[in-house]
Amino acid sequence: MDVTVGVIGLGNVGSGTLEILAENGARIREKLGFPLRVKAICSRNVARKKAPAFPDAVTRTTDWREVVRDPEIDIIVELVGGTATAGHIIEEALRNRKSVVTANKELMAIRGAELWAMASENGVNLAMEASVAGGIPIHTILREGIAGDRVCELYGVLNGTSNFILTEIEKSNAKFESVLAEAQQLGYAEADPSADVDGLDARSKLAILAALAFGERLTPADIYTEGIRRILPVDFEYAHQLKHTIRLLCLARQSDDGLLLSVRPSLIPQSAILAQVQGAYNAVWIRGAYGEDTFYYGRGAGPKPTGVAVVSDLMRVAREIRHGSPDRVSPFAHERLGEYKPLPIPTQALPYFLRFRVEDKAGIIATLATILAKHQIGIDAVLQLPREDWRDLPFVITTEPAKEQAIRDALVEIREADFLVEAPLAMPMERGF
Ligand code: HSE
């Protein structure tokens, strides 16, 4: 007997999912021992959407309620995105005792634990492999592959658009704005790029991975987040002098005091495995107490890589339905999540890379050194490339490990200086890589 599927949302991921289900249908059937049958597809403009041919008739509709109420459909695939309609679709599907497969990171980051509780009450499943790092099966790894370990640290490059932009700035010395325009032309960046370049997309993904890794339910807005808009080509030049590079680093680090989380441009050594992650790729590096380091790499987005994640979830959920499995593994790897407030970022102590743009004159370094010393911040190095324009001179001071609070306090004072062209940029230099 087959297991039937209704797909709601026919954008890039929806189309990729349908193509894989059609083209790879025979192999999927061989693996499962029964077919996955697409019974209905739904989109606001379904009439204009092309869909591959399936052996059985497929209902096409613009009304998602028709799909979630269809008694013959076992699994709903929610690929609408956003939090409003997608939330209604998932709730109604679960109430109707249909399992749900979703790629919706934003919704799962905010309401995932609540929706999982609802799925459990209704005896159905909720699966979300496609919501983080499209082509990398990172949920499966955390949920099952290394479930026996205790995760201590997790580092990720989780936004392909930002990584594409940063690595293009690094390679071509071009400015953020022109690389963003190129990324938009290539289809890597949206017309409104803020979710990607301001770190919000990565923040949702980190909230989900941290829940899986540490069993804590985190409000995404509680995660300290900075985007990449201020990064200049010269930042890479200075970072390279220090044998480092810059990545939009997502981190979750467990310490005796608690869990520290952030999404921010950071310096990492050029020798680090995450520094090799180029272009629109994603990667996750996990350090476990027992299994030590494991690393996962792949495409973070795209119709086919993300489609594979959706189809693989469908296969797992279909197997459970077919074999009547009463025990499902929580999509968060923990039956219950705690409620957690991350440690405040100002408490972390790291070396910092401080980049200044100044109108040059005598005494600038002396002023900065005095203010840093006042806040007990030791200077490690002062880097200055030959001056091209005295009215906008970029240079860098790296510090000894210091509390971020001290750095912030010093920068507030420094901001009063009359020689600054723009506010200083501070980035942590990550250790332990
Ligand atoms: N916009 C995301 C990225 C892909 O650039 O990585 C979807 O999560």
Number of helices in the DSSP assignment:
14
Mean pLDDT: 95
As a percent range, the share of helical residues equals: 25-40%
At the fourth CATH level, what is the homologous superfamily of the largest domain? NAD(P)-binding Rossmann-like Domain
CATH topology (level 3) name of the largest domain = Rossmann fold
- The low-confidence parts are none
The CATH architecture assignment of the largest domain turns out to be: 3-Layer(aba) Sandwich
Share of β-strand residues: 25-35%
Q: What's the end-to-end separation, in Å?
A: 50 Å
Task: Write down the overall geometry.
Answer: elongated
Radius of gyration from the alpha-carbon trace, in angstroms: 24 Å
The main pleated sheet reads as:
6 strands, parallel
CATH class of the largest domain: Alpha Beta
- The number of strands is 20
* Bound molecule kinds, no repeats: L-homoserine
Sheet with most strands: strand arrangement: 3-2-1-4-5-6
**How many domains make up the 3D coordinates?**
3
User: Helix/strand-derived class?
Assistant: alpha/beta
List keywords for this structure.
single chain; 433 residues; alpha/beta; Rossmann fold; Dihydrodipicolinate Reductase, domain 2; Alpha-Beta Plaits; 3 domains; 6-stranded parallel sheet; 6-stranded mixed sheet; 14 helices; 20 strands; 26% strand; elongated; binds L-homoserine
